[in-house]
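Database export, one record per block. Field names are fixed; values are copied verbatim from the stored entry.
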Amino acid sequence: MAASGFAGLGYQIVWTQQATLWLGQDMAAVLAVVAAFFGGLAAGALALGGRIARSRRARRWYAGCELAIALWSLALMVLLPRFSAAATRLMGAQPFGPTMWLLAFAGTFLLLLPATAAMGATLPAMERLAPATGGGATSSVAGLYAANTLGAVG
């Protein structure tokens, strides 16, 4: 989980730098990517968490999620410049506030959703794989989340 957290932060930094290119400002890019990142994490955990919890193949779920993250991140190498060019054309030379923010938030969310949703599903998968602790499921989830967060900090 620590390695996953470290990689997640790396993705977030790269995606923020890419968003800065078409939004033209760091703050808008940071806000859009962080919102898309956390929204995708929540969506993935909600959409797949129950299914993963009922599965006998949590290891495959985890591996599949990590593979989906990697593959979508590779796809973004092609998609982000195209999205950037299209968004820049749509916003025009003098972007109008609501149009710019709609493109920034909705566009970024949808563009990053496959990877961020898969990231959100990794925690339920790892929770299923974690050995039972004396504190029960809550304790194992807390430990996994802490390891993931420490990996992002490191």
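Remark 1: The chain has a mean pLDDT of 84.
Remark 2: The helical segments are 2-23, 26-54, 58-91, 97-129, 136-153.
End of record.
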